[in-house]
Write a structure and sequence with these properties.
The structure holds 2 protein chains of 2 kinds. Chain A has 2 domains: 128 residues, Aspartate Aminotransferase, domain 1; 254 residues, Type I PLP-dependent aspartate aminotransferase-like (Major domain) (Aspartate Aminotransferase, domain 2), CATH 3.40.640. In chain A, 37% of the residues lie in helices and 16% in strands. Chain A contains 14 helices and 17 strands. The longest helix of chain A has 21 residues. Chain B is an alpha+beta fold. Chain B has one domain: Sufe protein. Chain: A, CATH 3.90.1010. In chain B, 40% of the residues lie in helices and 20% in strands. Chain B has a 4-stranded mixed beta sheet, with helices on one face. The termini of chain B are far apart. The model of chain B has no long low-confidence stretch (mean pLDDT 92). The chains are: A alpha/beta, B alpha+beta. At the A-B interface, helix 12 and helix 14 of A face helix 1 of B.
C-alpha cells in the first residue's frame, strides 16, 4: 500500500484555498467527501462564474446587439467584454476571430460544414487515431456529402502519435490537418508545434481540438500559428452549452456562412441578403448570452491564478497518481506518453470499468467509466472501456490515495 | 460498504467468476447478439428450442459483473423450461429489474432474486436486463441483434 506523505499544499499552490472557490466540492457522497476526478468530462465551476450568470439574469437580461435601452447596452457590453477575454486568453489578434458556438463539437461541425464546402471529391482530411468522436464523425458526414477521403495518423502503444508516419500521409490532395491537442482518453499532449510546422511545409491549414488542452495548458494561437482552435467552456471551469471556434481572420473571411438567421445578416430582402462581418456572420440567432458571460468570468478567474504554480502542482498530482496506480495489483495504465496532462486511464484484470465506476462512487470517488467517445482508441488497445481519473488543480494528493485504496478494495471484492 | 454488498452478492460474484453455460452452441436454433453500446457490454445468447421447450441455452460475451452474472443465471433458470414459461420469466424479471417498487417478490424467483439489488443503482439496470432482452428477442422475433440504450 502506497501511503502518501505529501502535504496538502504545494509550493506556491494553496489547494485548500482554491477549493473554497468551488462550492460543489464541499459535499459528501455516500458518506464520503466528494473526490471529483471526472474533470475531462466536465469541470466544476467557481462561485464567481455562478454569480456572474445569476447576476446577468437578475440585472442585465436583454437581447444583445439589438435594443438601445439600458439593459440591452449592459448585456451587449458584458457579452462583447467576454469575447475580448477569450481573445486575450488565447492571444488571438482580433475579437473578429472569436466565434461563439455551443462547444467543441459544434466548432468542428462549423468548420466541416463551412470550410467543407470548398472541398471536392478526392480531397483529403488528415486526422489521428486518438481523436474524440467529435473530430471524426463531422468529417465522415462530409465524406458522405462530398466524397472526401479521411486519412488517419496512427498511434504507438505508449499512446503517442506515430510521427514517423506523419510526413507520408500528406499528399497533394490534403486540405486540412484536424487533430487533437490533448487526448481525452489517454491524456497525451501532442507536439502541436511540430505538427503545424509539418502541415505548413505541405501548405495545409490546421485545426486543433483544444477541449482537453486549455484546462491544463496555456495556449497562444499566434505563437502556435494554427488556423482553427476549438474548445468548450464547460471543460474550462465555465458553463455548459458554450464554446469557441478561433479562426484565423484571413481564412474565416473567405468562408461561407454556417447557419442562416438573425444576427448573422446585414440586410435581408426576398431577393438578396448581405451577411454581417466577422464574427457575427457565424453566429446566427440569439446566442447563449449567460453562457458567454459565464465563460468570460471563468477565464478571468483562471487569469488571476498563479498558472505556473497550478501547472507544477498538476504535474506532481499526475506523478503521484501514476506511481500509486501502477502499484495496484492487476492494474494497467492505458496511455503512457512522455508528455501528459493530469489524467490516468486504466483497466484492471477481472474488474470491468462499470463495476469499477460503481464501487468507486460508493466511496465518494467520481471517475469516468466507458469508451470516452473515443472508440477507435479502445479498439487499438483491445479493451471495451477504461476507467479514467482526470484531475484538475483543485484535486488533492489525499484524493489520489483514496482512489488507490478503493482500487485495491475493488479487486478484492470482484476478482 | 453494506450497500455494495446488496449489488455484489456472493451468488452474483460466483456467477461472474464462474459463468455457467458459457459456451458456443453450433446447433442452436437461435443465436442473438445483445449489445449495450453505452457500456460496451456484448453477449451472444444461444437457444435450442424443440417441441416448444428450451432444450439448451448458453452464452458467450464480455461485460461487467452484473451483465455476465445475469446472463449466467438466466441460462440456469430457463434451461429445460417451456417457451411459455421462459417468456413468463422474462416478464417477471423485467418487472423486478425495471419497476420500483416491483410487483414481483424476489423470493419467488429463487436465485434470480439476488439481482433485485440492482434497483438501488439506476445506472446499472441495463447491465442486468441485457441478457433478458436478448432472450426475449430470441424467443419472440426473427431479429438477430438487440441493443439496449
Amino acid at each position: 500500500m502506497t501511503v502518501s506523505n505529501e502535504p496538502m499544499t504545494s509550493p506556491g499552490w494553496d489547494v485548500t484555498s482554491v477549493r473554497r472557490d468551488f462550492p460543489i466540492l464541499e459535499q459528501s457522497v455516500h458518506g464520503y467527501p466528494l473526490a471529483y476526478l471526472d474533470n475531462a468530462a466536465t469541470t466544476q465551476k467557481p462561485r464567481v462564474v455562478l454569480e456572474a450568470m445569476d447576476g446577468y439574469y437578475r440585472r442585465d437580461n436583454a437581447n444583445v446587439h439589438r435594443g438601445v435601452h439600458a439593459l440591452a447596452e449592459r448585456a451587449t457590453g458584458a457579452f462583447e467584454a467576454a469575447r475580448e477575454s477569450v481573445r486575450r486568453f488565447i492571444n488571438a489578434r482580433s475579437t473578429r476571430e472569436i466565434v461563439f458556438v455551443r462547444g467543441t463539437t459544434e466548432a468542428i461541425n462549423l468548420v466541416a460544414s463551412s470550410f467543407g464546402q470548398r472541398l471536392r471529391e478526392g480531397d483529403e482530411i488528415l486526422i489521428s487515431a486518438m481523436e474524440h468522436h467529435a473530430n471524426i464523425v463531422p468529417w465522415q458526414l462530409l465524406r458522405e456529402r462530398s466524397g472526401i477521403v479521411l486519412r488517419v495518423v496512427p498511434i504507438t502503444p505508449a499512446g503517442e502519435l506515430d510521427l514517423d508516419r506523419l510526413s507520408s500521409l500528406f499528399t497533394p490532395r490534403t486540405r486540412l490537418l484536424a487533430i487533437t491537442h490533448v487526448s481525452n482518453a489517454l491524456g497525451t499532449v501532442n507536439p502541436v508545434r511540430e505538427l503545424i510546422a509539418e502541415a505548413r511545409r505541405h501548405g495545409v491549414p490546421v485545426l486543433l481540438d483544444g477541449a482537453q488542452a486549455l484546462p491544463h495548458l496555456r495556449v497562444d494561437v499566434q505563437a502556435l500559428d494554427c488556423d482553427f482552435y476549438a474548445f468548450s467552456g464547460h471543460k474550462l471551469f465555465g458553463p455548459t452549452g458554450i464554446g469557441v471556434l478561433y479562426g484565423r481572420e484571413s481564412l474565416l473571411e473567405t468562408l461561407p456562412p454556417y447557419q442562416g438567421g438573425g444576427e448573422m445578416i446585414r440586410t435581408v430582402s426576398f431577393e438578396k441578403t448581405t451577411f454581417a462581418g466577422l464574427p457575427h456572420r457565424f453566429e446566427a440567432g440569439t446566442p447563449d448570452i449567460s453562457g458567454v458571460i459565464g465563460l468570460g468570468r471563468a477565464i478571468e478567474y483562471l487569469e488571476q491564478l498563479d498558472w505556473d504554480a497550478a501547472t507544477a502542482y498538476e504535474a506532481r498530482l499526475l506523478e503521484h497518481a501514476t506511481a500509486c496506480l501502477q502499484d495496484v495489483p492487476g492494474l494497467r495504465i492505458i496511455g503512457q506518453a512522455r508528455h501528459k496532462v493530469a489524467l490516468v486511464s486504466f483497466v484492471m484484470e477481472d474488474v470491468h470499468p462499470h463495476d469499477m465506476g460503481t464501487i468507486l462512487d460508493r466511496r465518494g470517488l467520481a471517475v469516468r467509466a466507458g469508451h470516452h467517445c473515443a472508440m477507435p482508441v479502445m479498439s487499438y488497445y483491445g479493451v471495451p472501456a477504461t476507467s479514467r481519473a482526470a484531475m484538475a488543480f483543485y484535486n488533492t494528493f489525499d484524493e489520489i490515495d483514496r482512489l488507490a485504496e478503493a482500487l485495491r478494495y475493488a479487486r478484492e471484492l470482484l476478482a | 460498504m453494506s450497500d455494495l454488498d446488496d449489488l455484489y452478492q456472493e451468488l452474483i460474484l460466483d456467477h461472474k467468476r464462474h459463468p455457467r453455460n458459457f459456451r458456443d452452441m453450433p446447433d442452436a436454433t437461435r443465436a442473438v447478439d445483445g449489445h449495450n453500446p453505452l457500456c460496451g457490454d456484448q453477449l451472444r445468447l444461444f437457444v435450442k428450442v424443440a417441441d416448444g421447450r428450451v432444450e439448451d441455452v448458453s452464452f458467450i460475451g464480455v461485460g461487467c459483473a452484473i451483465s455476465m452474472a445475469s446472463a449466467s443465471m438466466l441460462t440456469e433458470a430457463v434451461m429445460g423450461k417451456t417457451v411459455q414459461e421462459a417468456q413468463q420469466l422474462f416478464a417477471d424479471m423485467h418487472d423486478l429489474l425495471t419497476r420500483n417498487p416491483s410487483g414481483i417478490d424476489p423470493a419467488e424467483l429463487g436465485n434470480l432474486g439476488a439481482l433485485a439489488g440492482v434497483h438501488e443503482y439506476p445506472m446499472r439496470v441495463k447491465c442486468a436486463t441485457l441478457s433478458w432482452h436478448t432472450l426475449d428477442t430470441a424467443l419472440n422475433t426473427d431479429d438477430d441483434v438487440v441493443t439496449t440504450e
